[in-house]
Amino acid sequence: MLTTLKSWFDPPSLAGDAEQTMRVNLLNANMIFINIYLLLVMITYLFGVPMSIGVVIFDGLLFIFILLLRYWLFQGHINAACIGLLLGSYITTTLVVISMGSVTSPATNTFVLITLLAGIFFQRGGVLVSATVISVTVLALIMAENAGLLPAPTILVLMPQWLTYSIVFLVAGSLIQYVMQAMRKALQALRMENEERKHAALLQQAVYSIAEAAHTAQSLQDLYAQIQNHVSQVMDVGNFSIALYNEKTARLDFVFVIAESNQPTAHPNYELTGQVFLHGRSLLYQPGSTLHSCAVWLGVPLVVAGKVIGVMALEHRTDPQAYTAREQHMLEFVSSQVATAIERKQTEQRLRESNQRFEQIAAAIQETFWIIDTSDNRVLYVSPAYAQLWGVTDDFDYPGLAEFIASILPEDRSTMLAAMEKQNRGMPTDIRYRIQRANGSVRWVWDRSSPVFDEDDQLVRKVAVVTDITEVMDAEAALAQLNLELEQRVEERTTQLRQSEETSRALFEN
């Protein structure tokens, strides 16, 4: 019950319009106050307070009239409710003054309240009209009272008193209207400030979201779609397009184009996009009736480190006021982060493609490919061929320096350590050594290392290519063994021939 009673007293809500809400609240409060007063008057009559039956009937009709005005108010007819309240107050006050028989009665002061209400609910014209009507009414009452037409006149009202009343009505109404106008301006300024803050917050959120999208987007197309979505949070994007400059072809390529929701396809404006790219400045173009396919076009350059990399453009087919200078400034504000995000994603994609090509090449070659940081001898990269040569699993971890040295046979480690000293001095090396694989077998390897210097000619990395030469070394060993056996056979044959020659010479001499 209390909730129902409270809802009866509460005024209708007008979201987003502070001025109208204030008028409605004042109207509702005045109507409730008047109805409560009228209800109390009728209740006192029921309890035996002496009162004319005509006054009670009039109070009841006025009570119903105020209820009707509240109904209009809740239906959204605010001006009608205002006029009805002022008119009802005017008629009631006039009748009360007539019934009391003198303009000097306290009831005449109610006219001042009516003028104040007119100043609250209407502009300067409404105050002037209400003050004029009331002034004429008071003049008529004064003349009627002076002529003896009002019941039981006791005080003679002079014209200066009427002039005083008129001045008071006008000044009071004008003063309250001035105050209300100042309040309206303050509310409007506050509303505009709140809107600017909201737009600023939306812009900051859009910029932050676009920066995040550069990291979370799975591809460039996904990034473009997220950019379009975030821009649409702060303005009507209409037809949206992103064009990027292709250095290989020396032309602008429209990498992302999306149409309005009610349009099947979007056709980007090549001419205007080219102008924005060439001049490096944003452009707000409203062709009017000369270009029927476009009502307004807005484009901003995408700039990274002072270089224009492309253009982001919006186009609306039907509403010429869809984009104004405000939207132009907003899009300029967002464009820098858009350009940065696109450049970052392009760099990531190029790096990913480069890494993929490198991995494909490294996986195709049989040699083991090493990249080592010379500052701490940390292995930065080892090609997949390492797993086969060293006899480890394919999901191996990059070996450390100690682990690598331990895999070399003890009698060959000095060769490797001496080569590493040369490498750390920026010298290339070419050595052969033996390693022991994970299964205990021994392999011969051929290690060629080359230094890598930065732009300051400082050694930063060394690159090594290691080849399995076990078969070559085995062949060389077999060849050496064969040569040794041949030499031994030749020597044995030579000895035999020498002995045979000596025997033959002895027989000949005998």
N-C termini distance? 158 Å
What is the domain total for the residues?
A: 3
What's the shape? rod-shaped
Proportion of β residues?
15-25%
Number of helical runs?
14
Number of strands: 10
Low-confidence stretches: none
Give the C-alpha Rg. Answer: 50 Å
**Lateral arrangement of strands in the main beta sheet:** 2-1-5-4-3
Characterization of this structure:
By secondary structure, the chain is an alpha+beta fold. The chain folds into three domains: 187 residues, no CATH class; 141 residues, Beta-Lactamase, CATH 3.30.450; 104 residues, PAS domain (Beta-Lactamase), CATH 3.30.450. The chain contains 14 helices and ten strands. Strands 2-1-5-4-3 form a five-stranded antiparallel β-sheet, sandwiched between helices. A five-stranded antiparallel β-sheet has the order 7-6-10-9-8, with helices on both faces. The model has no long low-confidence stretch (mean pLDDT 76).
